[in-house]
DNA sequence: AGCAAAGTTGCGCAACAGGCAAGTTTGGGA
DNA sequence: TCCCAAACTTGCCTGTTGCGCAACTTTGCT
């Protein structure tokens, strides 16, 4: 009768625990000075189990971002089908970020971590790329028939994610001068002119 | 007196040899069934030396793409300073791809490899990301003073590379129906409307 | 000719991904 | 309520990797 079984919940909890352990250790010792062993320990699980959940530390570290972005994707899905893809994406982003965006402390912490440790940039890019293809599928659904090769869907998704990524990185360099969402909204508006 | 010393040339040759060895073996056995050892052997060099040139197989595999893209960046640099960044980028791409783009057999081979082995997608994304930041620097030079936070430069570079990447991937799925550059040009035109 | 800088190599080690099989937990019938 | 199959965890193990270090070789400059 539970909406989702115990099994599922336990899995999610373990994944989350691993993620949080990774983040905690990375913040404390620096992301390049931690081992998978240490993360598993910190999460109270065997090293082998870590491998069942994540392919490597970076994936564990950015799991939170992926979750956040999946939440954004859900908002996109919830937008009225009548909206154009780009409109739906920006509207969903507005909902997602405008209110409490900058306030998630974990999100900010991860951001700062990336800023201070350029070696993490690769993993960040990877995370955005993952979401890009998930979003492309959603966009494609809105373009049934109008996009024979599927270029447009992928183009829109890629551009959207690229703008969010660039905005994030710029904001991390100038966090005091502007809010993330202000920056992102403006960038989206400018870049999106091709899709309206 | 030589324009470039023997030292430099030898290094370039070794790097190229490693790259070609990696590509050859990947094509023959599949990219996930080859070891760094094997690549170094094939290139007639020690495993340790491989590490002096590339951080991992993927980097070796995509070295050719990076070279290609750097050539494109050179074309960008050569465009008149009076052109807007986006105009310079697209014009350079036109020069680069329009003529012989699809004809470089290595380039096509790598493309097919990525298409058949999704595990390589990560490395491909990484390669484009690398070029993105190199290009951003070039674009920034054209926006002296007009781009206080540096957003615009990064935005333009990111969008440009995203379009090329998406176009490539779409083209790889439909190579018969259209030429790469036709597809990319159209995508650039559409997406670039925000930057004109 | 000769020396300093750059490049190569072998050795060694900590770390890691992931196959396999034995144990443990969960959930859906009967 | 009980039971079993499927799902999950864990330990063990192997092949691979990235990189520091120190010895050796090659290159370039004078």
Automatic annotation (TrEMBL), chains A, B:
Ranges annotated as spanning the membrane: none
Concerning InterPro entries, the annotation shows: DNA-bd_HTH_TetR-type_CS, Homeodomain-like_sf, HTH-type_TetR-like_transc_reg, HTH_TetR, MftR_C
SUPFAM superfamilies reported for this sequence: Homeodomain-like (SSF46689)
**Residues in the DNA-binding region annotation:** 35-54
Signal peptide bounds: none
Q: Does the keyword Transcription regulation apply?
A: yes
Which GO MF term does the entry hold, naming one? Answer: DNA-binding transcription factor activity
What keywords were assigned to this record?
Answer: DNA-binding, Transcription, Transcription regulation
Query: What residues does the HTH tetR-type domain cover?
Result: 12-72
Write down the PANTHER family for this protein, in alphabetical order.
HTH-TYPE TRANSCRIPTIONAL REGULATOR RUTR, MYCOFACTOCIN BIOSYNTHESIS TRANSCRIPTIONAL REGULATOR MFTR-RELATED
Q: What is the name of this protein?
A: TetR family transcriptional regulator
- Organism of origin is Actinoplanes italicus
